[in-house]
From TrEMBL:
It comes from Umezawaea endophytica. It comes from the Bacteria. The lineage of its organism: Bacteria, Bacillati, Actinomycetota, Actinomycetes, Pseudonocardiales. Residues 1-24 are annotated as: Disordered. This is Class I SAM-dependent methyltransferase. One of its GO terms (biological process) is methylation.
Length: 272
């Protein structure tokens, strides 16, 4: 039985359970690339009075937090990034890479250690929870954002070739993104194993996310004549065909070439 999130003992009163801590350099490059190239995120960050970004649950080493901070500076040079972890040893590892005030590390969980960020990245932190608990964590994190803030919550494989995430505001989920290295896939349906907790148990007949993956697989099959031009070309054609079927694809060919597809949350949201 999954353990319920709790307030841990101690001065920090941190909320949540420790993750496995698995991390690798560039593991989160796809979501970082999406954030710096998506108006939804860029506009929120550039308009913020205080450009504070929190990276929740960065893992055994701070490498992905350091990478995110460097990438976000292309959007706003004065961005401040705070990495949060429940495990004290991981916080200590982060402090060795700190560059205050631009990059700091602290002990914290879903309560965000009292911070009020305009952007919160929470990757691979909800997989050990139930769907109900994950939804409660969403509510907790969204309640800690600065006005107009965004939460980007998702999951990926160990080397960042298969990813998915949800972008949310205080009003709820806005968009859902699949991102991959097309050469790593047999079919787009392979991404099902990396759906976020809010959707991974909904990949069953009758649910919207199941229909999305099934239709994307069908379009991938139809796009087989593009295979000689490489997996990326086949992915682009598959997404084009998906949009032609009436799916509300939000991004453009430029993003498709990166192995991405983004749709409104309503297109994949659970039916109940």
């Amino acid at each position: 039985m999954a353990r319920k999130p709790r307030l841990a003992a101690g001065r920090a009163r941190t909320l949540g359970l420790p993750t496995r801590g698995t991390t690798n350099p560039n593991r989160l490059r796809r979501v970082d690339r999406w954030m710096v190239g998506t108006p939804l995120v860029v506009d929120a960050l550039t308009a913020a009075d205080d450009p504070l970004v929190v990276d929740l649950g960065y893992g055994a080493t701070p490498v992905t937090t350091v990478e995110m901070a460097a990438r976000l500076r292309a959007v706003r040079a004065d961005v401040r990034v705070l990495g949060l972890e429940l495990d004290a040893d991981r916080v200590a590892a982060g402090e060795a890479a700190a560059d205050p005030p631009r990059l700091e590390f602290r002990r914290g969980g879903f309560e965000l250690a009292g911070a009020r960020p305009v952007l919160l990245r929470a990757f691979n932190v909800l997989r050990q929870y139930t769907e109900e608990q994950a939804n409660e964590a969403w509510t907790t994190m969204l309640g800690r954002l600065a006005p107009g803030g965004l939460l980007v919550e998702g999951t990926c494989d160990e080397i960042g070739r298969r990813c998915s995430w949800v972008a949310l505001t205080a009003d709820g989920p806005l968009t859902f993104t699949l991102a991959c290295l097309p050469a790593d896939l047999e079919t787009p349906g392979d991404l099902a194993e990396r759906l976020p907790k809010s959707l991974i148990h909904r990949n069953v007949d009758g649910e919207r996310v199941h229909r999305l993956l099934a239709d994307l697989d069908a379009c991938w099959a139809t796009a087989a004549p593009f295979a000689p031009f490489g997996p990326r070309a086949r992915w682009v054609e598959a997404v084009r065909l998906l949009a032609a079927r009436g799916w509300p694809v939000l991004d453009t060919r430029k993003r498709w070439r990166l192995g991405e597809i983004t749709v409104p949350w309503d297109a994949v949201s659970p039916l109940s």
